[in-house]
Amino acid sequence: MLENRSFDHLVGYMKKVNPQIEGPTPQACFNYRDPNAPTPPPVPVSANADPVMPFDPNHEFCDVQTQLYGPDPTQRCTDPLGRCCSNPARNPAPMSGFVANGIIASTKQAGKDYGEKVMACFDCGQVPYLNSLAQEFALFNFWYSALPGPTWPNRFFVHAGTSGGLTDSPGTEAIVLGFSFRAETIYHALAAAGKEWRIYHDGLPQTAGIESLRLSYVDPFTRNFREMKHFAHDVKAGILPEYTFIEPRYDTGNNYANGNSMHPVNGISEGDCLVRDIYEALRASMSYWPNTMLIITFDEHGGFYDHVPPPEVVPTGDDQTYSNPNHIFGFDLYGVRVPAIVVSAYTQKGTVIGQDAGDPATRFDHTSILATVEKRFGLAPLTNRDRAANTLEAAINLEQARQDAPATLQSPTQG
């Protein structure tokens, strides 16, 4: 699970090489700088996004409300209670406030208006290894982040099927105390069923913020947490567990500068190389390649534009321990669409899953990973969200293993 990129922004322009991909068009996909007073010209999507952004687009819960519905028409976004200063929610969301929010963020962070850069998309081949996997295996058109908010609550959904009501980035004190969830995590469910799991990480993993995983993380003899530098060796040695989760290097203490998570201010190429290295290690393994599903996705959209409004979704049905009283959220709406690719020996080249955004059977989110693991190993759901989530079997669409899957990744076809 990588960081902070929307579907349109990262893979939408691959529509040029495969028209089944639900990417944007400049004629139909645009924002106005002020959607409450739309003065031409509009700001359309464009190609050749910056590999390293000059600012970090905002993506807290209230920022995403502004991006979805547009800013407060009074322009007085100084609510002392921290309530969201956006237009009232009206679904389907018009997706009209990305540039307006980007202007605020860039002016505050960089002292310059870079707001229009949130509409820029990567062209085919700009992210070569991820683009190659999207062409070689299965790309999901309608995979949404779990809620319209930032990294921490979205990542909790892939581990626990819930964020316990959390909608915002937690403060240092909350992280130090740690988070806990009523049904624990997928790792606890696997262990109770006699299955092994492991989290590979490079630096401090976000999962160490889950109180019940922390003891395992700090145990010097742990088998469950392992540094990413050992991953390729462990693949060759045949010692991967039944379920493996990989956390990238965030480098948050250095403003993401040396990270490989694809965070907007650490650049795109380092994360792309991480994707390549993981794939090539698995592809070279005679034991793992025929039996392993590799899922590549992103925690949330990072403030970048996407043209598909998030649809409604089943609420988690669990407790709201960490909810913000200033903006109670029912967890009944997905977050913004993010890229997701499934790689396996049984995935037909060029698979694109989902052609109708209105079809609930084509909708996926981070709990689709949980639902798939639960079905594979006979585990009970953790919350109502993963109980209702679609599994990833649609990506397993060949009866015989492919013999033509590339051993190494090259730059894909250009549009």
Strand proportion, as a percent range, falls in 5-15%
Order of strands, widest sheet: 8-9-3-10
* Secondary-structure element string: HEEHHHEEHHHEHEHEHEEEEHH
What is the general shape? Answer: globular
Which structural class do the helices and strands define? alpha/beta
Notes on the protein architecture:
- This protein is an alpha/beta fold and 415 residues long.
- It has a domain at 7-20 and 123-395: Alkaline Phosphatase, subunit A (3-Layer(aba) Sandwich), CATH 3.40.720.
- 25% of the residues lie in helices and 8% in strands.
- It has twelve helices and eleven strands.
- The chain has helices at residues 7-11, 61-69, 98-110, 128-136, 151-160, 172-177, 186-192, 211-218, 231-237, 269-283, 367-377, 384-388, and strands at 30-31, 43-44, 138-140, 143-144, 197-201, 225-227, 243-246, 294-297, 340-343, 351-353, 364-365.
- The protein has a four-stranded mixed beta sheet with strand order 8-9-3-10, covered by helices on one side. A three-stranded parallel beta sheet has the order 6-5-7. Strands 1-2 form a two-stranded antiparallel ribbon.
- Helix 2 (61-69) packs across helix 3 (98-110) and helix 5 runs parallel beside helix 11.
- The longest helix is centred in the middle third of the chain and has 15 residues, at 269-283.
- It is globular and about 60 Å long.
- The protein starts with 6 loop residues before the first helix and ends in a 27-residue tail after the last helix.
- The mean pLDDT is 94.
